């Protein structure tokens, strides 16, 4: 593997980890908005998708490939793919995750969403695009085990949440798997800014038919709420999704999904530092599992680089 390819993979790792951290903290902030400030899920998802999508396309307009913003609609096949990705990928993964947080909490919602690496793994095996290996089993075990310990502190009783929270959480895992796999088709020919930006606008527009973004009591909204909304829109949505998609240019869907397990680590960190909640023994063990997962994947890449350089 050439030096440029190694740099590309390193950049991919940086992108997916940064996106995952933004996601994790954004989920914690979103829970605060839902539970302490009474923000409605439909309105919240609509607004953050529309604003973040517009901002991403604005960034693209300053690049040398700005023409892609509108050229994407000139090809029927690409346009259809983008609409599918926006509604079934972007909107689905956003709405199901936030609905699970609303009906339960960010911890359970994140844990259930991280079934996606296992879903992707077995999907690829069933499609005969991959063969199950011991490393796959070890990676999936570390990802799921780490998420469980990190978010529940080893207590099975903490998984006893409402049925809506469980259903939305499971659907979030399926949506995240679809989002990761389907995005690969689009970023083969399009910039990630264009893909993510339009997908957000499509998803936000679709949901706005149910809950128009202007239907909100802005006059009685506390000042700090606007700060939390800005954070979730810019970092928790725009940056998180953009970087996640960008990472797929140099990493496989399975690697990106598994490295995204840094999200619950960020969520717990935000909970401990910002919300001043205690951090238990099993949660530290879960942290070790997540770090072990990242080191395992890094070790596999290093051996691959050496083998290819021979």
What can you see in these coordinates?
The chain has 13 helices and no strands. By secondary structure, the protein is mostly helical. Helix 4 packs across helix 9, helix 5 runs antiparallel to helix 12 and helix 8 (163-187) packs across helix 11. The model is unreliable at 301-310 (pLDDT under 50).
Structural class: mainly alpha
Q: From N to C, what is the helix and strand string?
A: HHHHHHHHHHHHH
Number of domains: 1
The biggest sheet amounts to: none
What percentage of amino acids are in beta strands?
under 5%
Number of helices: 13
Radius of gyration: 19 Å
- The number of E-state strands comes to 0
| Range of helix content | over 70%
Return residue spans where pLDDT drops below 50 for at least 5 consecutive residues: 301-310
Topology:
Elements: H1 3-37, H2 41-60, H3 68-71, H4 76-103, H5 106-113, H6 116-126, H7 134-152, H8 163-187, H9 192-208, H10 223-247, H11 253-259, H12 262-274, H13 281-309
Helix pairs in contact: 1-10, 1-12, 2-4, 2-9, 2-10, 4-5, 4-8, 4-9, 5-7, 5-8, 5-12, 6-8, 6-11, 7-13, 8-11, 9-10
Short description:
With 310 residues, the protein is mainly α. Helix content is 78%, strand content 0%. It is built from 13 helices and no strands.
Question: Which structural traits does this protein have?
Answer:
78% helix; single chain; disordered C terminus; 310 residues
